[in-house]
Design brief:
Distance between the termini: 69 Å
Strand order of the largest sheet: 3-2-1-4-5-6-7
CATH superfamily of the largest domain: Glycogen Phosphorylase B
Oligomer: single chain
CATH architecture of the largest domain: 3-Layer(aba) Sandwich
Number of domains: 2
CATH class of the largest domain: Alpha Beta
Number of strands: 13
Low-confidence stretches: 1-15, 32-51, 411-415
Helix content: 25-40%
Structural class: alpha/beta
Largest sheet: 7 strands, parallel
Shape: globular
Number of helices: 15
Order of helices and strands: HEHEEHEEEHEHEHHEHHEHEHEHEHHH
Strand content: 15-25%
């Protein structure tokens, strides 16, 4: 008998893993129920509370989200609320935090992390990770309430399809997000989630930091190329051509690909870094903290990346954006018979880069920086996009504690 090599594609592998997790989960749950029945009989019918139940858990799938969660952790620590911070990055800065009430632990990468989360016992879990109950991450029978918070001021319908459907609550930053979520719930006949406008804590922190440190020292004009990732992203569509054109401007160029590009588009990244090595004019940036690179850049060139709103609303600088033929079919936006929100506000923030005007990019950059109408446009978009500036962490902490007290039957929110 001849044996052949077996290959399992990633989609099938994910499905098989999900089935395996389901089988294990059902077995563990049945075993738990059996143990509870035995304890009940041995204790004459008295049932004790599971001492392993955690009041608050934060799950981060990547170390780059520590700046998103840290303001919330600081506020909860100030109020004496214990949080277990579970991370899928072994080098997450959270693991070195010094907050008294924040205990961080590495729970394994990728599927190992989800395997632990799928059997978690907690009252309230907070995360920025989409896809709960869609991919490997399943709702645990031991977690009473799942809360999702955003890590960018951007279009919530640009999550992969069903990205937030199975959370109990979403913490949002503008009214448009609320309208889109309610529309998706109606189309999919989902129960209404709890939606709360809280703002964006990491943007609050960045704004405070910028105010403290001030603008960057005088420097040569600097252009930041910071695209998103995926088939519709700038680097996938234009490849090295966009870097060529930027170098022709004579300005200092910083290329900062999306972190996911180095995981999902490895071949492209290696090719571009090989063809465009670092020089006095060109630098590649992979800093976890993007504060300094945004601060010292005078203009941003990007596609649909959420960094647009960091750069324009916090640093008050213009953007040049591409509007590629964006395929919305993998995203929640596909369900809605309306244009994406982000492209409708981009003309207020800067100029569109097209194949026709790409060779005139230097003139476009100069005009965009000098035009006062974009200054006014940034103010307008900020007012409608960023709810409760400066209050995000406080409002999220209020919500988490309120939810915990409601779930656990606490009457005194201070307890």
């Amino acid at each position: 008998m001849q044996l052949h090599n077996m290959y399992i594609d990633p989609g099938t592998g994910s499905m098989l893993f999900t089935v395996l997790i389901g089988v294990i989960g059902a077995s563990v749950y049945a075993l738990r129920m059996l143990l509870i029945k035995l304890r009940t009989r041995l204790s004459n019918g008295k049932v004790t509370v599971d001492s392993n139940n955690l009041p608050f858990v934060i799950f981060s799938d990547d170390k780059r989200y520590w700046p998103v969660f840290e303001p919330v952790c600081r506020e909860m620590d100030k109020r004496g609320k214990d949080i277990v911070y579970m991370t899928a990055s072994p080098d997450d800065p959270a693991l070195n935090n010094t907050y008294e009430h924040i205990k961080a632990e590495f729970i394994g990468a990728d599927n190992k992390a989800f395997a632990k989360l799928n059997f978690l016992n907690a009252s309230v879990l907070l995360s920025t990770t989409p896809g709960l109950e869609v991919y490997q991450w399943k709702r645990s029978k031991g977690v009473k309430y799942y809360v999702h918070m955003l890590h960018a001021a951007s279009d919530i319908t640009l999550y992969r399809m069903f990205g937030t459907d199975y959370y109990d609550a979403l913490l949002l930053s503008d009214e448009q997000q609320i309208r889109d979520i309610r529309a998706l719930e109606k189309l999919r006949e989902l129960p209404a989630k709890e939606l709360r406008l809280v703002g964006i804590p990491y943007m609050d922190e960045m704004a405070k930091r910028l105010k403290k440190e001030g603008p960057a020292p005088e420097h040569e004009r600097t252009v930041l190329l910071a695209p998103s990732w995926g088939p519709s992203s700038m680097l996938q569509i234009y490849g090295g051509k966009i870097i060529d054109v930027l170098l022709k401007t004579g300005y200092h160029v910083i290329v900062r690909p999306h972190p996911q590009s180095f995981k999902s588009e490895t071949e492209l990244m290696e090719k571009l870094m090989r063809e465009y090595p670092e020089s006095e004019q060109l630098e590649w940036n992979r800093d976890t903290d993007n504060f300094n690179v945004l601060r010292r850049s005078d203009i941003l060139v990007t596609d649909f990346s959420g960094v647009i709103f960091d750069f324009t609303l916090i640093y008050d600088k213009p953007v040049i954006y591409t509007n590629p033929n964006f395929d919305v079919s993998p995203y929640d936006a596909w369900w809605l018979d309306q244009p994406l929100w982000t492209p409708t506000v981009l003309p207020k923030l800067g100029e569109e880069l097209t194949p026709d005007n790409m060779e005139n990019l230097k003139e476009l950059i100069d005009a965009c920086i000098a035009d006062p109408r974009y200054t006014e446009g940034r103010r307008e978009v900020k007012a409608s996009t960023w709810a409760h500036p400066g209050e995000g962490a406080v409002r999220i902490a209020d919500f988490l504690i309120e939810k915990y007290d409601e779930i656990e039957g606490k009457k005194d929110a201070g307890k």
